[in-house]
Structures are given as structure tokens and as C-alpha cells.
Amino acid sequence: MAEIAVLSRISSVRLKILCKQVVGHVLGTEIDYEKVLKLTKDTFDTTSDVKAAVAGLDFILVNSAKYDIENEALTQEIQQLGLPKENAEALVKSYRDSKDALRERFGQQSFSLRKLTKAEWRADVVVSSSELDEINRPALQFKLTTGPPTGMPGFSHGAGVDGSGGDGVVGGGGTGVEEVAFSTTMEKFQVLYSELRTARLLMDQC
């Protein structure tokens, strides 16, 4: 893991502070990039090193918590990869202190649906077509816009240390917005509408 070499160059005290920033980000708060840059300016020569450090910590903490790795096993693994003992102990302490909160967060994400933020539709009438046997029939066009589940940040793994777009680092640049467009006949829409109403009634009874 190339990021281990970068993490080895930072002191254990600063590594612990950096871990706190990364954990806070995963739990839904923004990383204080000004603090990150200030912490690492005497250690790293380029912003690429800063990105690698944040990305490396994110990868280790997130995946260790997700797969419920034991503290001792994590300590041995990252030391075998080349992380100094003091840094490994600082990282694992941060992992131990935040593990329960991280796993709870992942559990919430696993059972959360994306939020519908906007719905657009229009009705068109096909007046001629070489592919359809029947014409002058209405067709419905839909475009649905969805965002992250309520209470979850609209970011993606892939923003730079300044909060803008970048590669391989946690950040706040992504919006998490997705658009889905589709068309259907009036008959199919009526079936869909009926099934959705039935589903809503069943949900209200729960």
C-alpha cells in the first residue's frame, strides 16, 4: 500500500489528529482542510502527499470498521506493511475509539433509500413512427432526480484537499445527485401508479 510510506513520515501525534478529521468526515462532518494543510506542511512537500495520507487513513479506518477487524490484527497488519510502531498504535487507538460509531453509520447507510428531490414529466403524442404499429397514442416522459438519503452527506470519495475535485481522497466536492430518465405508455403508467399506491397504503399500515 503506497500510502503507508506517506503516513510513515508524519508524527504519531499529528497522525492521531488527522485520523480524527477523517473519522469525523465519514460520520458526516466536513474535514477542516485548513487544519490538515497546517498539520502537514512541514512534513509533506506536495498536495499529492496530503491526498495520499487522507486517502490511506480513510481506506484503513473504513474497511477495518466495515469488516470488524480486531485491534491486534490491524496493528500487526499495518506494521507489516511498513508503518512505524508508534504510528500504528496511534492509528489503532483512533480506530478503537471510533469503531462503534463507524459501524453504526454503515448500518444506517445499508438500509437507507435515496431521496427523491425533483420529478419532471410531460405527455407526448406520437403522430408518426416507422417502429410502432399504432400512432396518435400518448407517451409519458419522466425525469427523476435523487439525492443522498436524509441525514447523509452529499459527498463522494474523490475530492481534493481543498474540497474540490481530485483523485483518491475523501472530500466534500461530490453532490451525490443522480438523474434517471425514462418513457412509458399510458397503460403501463396506470399499472405502475396503481402498484405504487398499493405499496404506499401498505407502508402506512406498518
Question: Could you characterize what this model shows?
Answer:
- The chain has 206 residues and is α+β, with helices and mostly antiparallel strands.
- It folds into two domains: 2-110, no CATH class; 115-148 and 176-205, no CATH class.
- It contains seven helices and five strands, in the order ααααααβββββα.
- A three-stranded antiparallel beta sheet has the order 1-2-5. Strands 3-4 form a two-stranded antiparallel sheet.
- A hairpin with a 5-residue loop joins β3 and β4.
- α2 crosses α4.
- Mean pLDDT is 81; it is low at 152-174.
Largest sheet, described in full?
3 strands, antiparallel
Overall geometry comes to elongated
* Overall pLDDT: 81
Distance between the termini: 48 Å
- Count of DSSP strands: 5
Q: Indicate the low-confidence ranges by residue numbers.
A: 152-174
Q: What level of helicity do the residues show?
A: 40-55%
Treating each run of at least 4 consecutive H or I residues as one helix, how many helices? 7
The string of secondary-structure elements, in order, is HHHHHHEEEEEH
Strand order of the largest sheet: 1-2-5
Query: What's the alpha carbon Rg, rounded to whole Å?
Result: 24 Å
Based on secondary structure, the structural category is alpha+beta
Portion in strands: 15-25%
Number of domains: 2
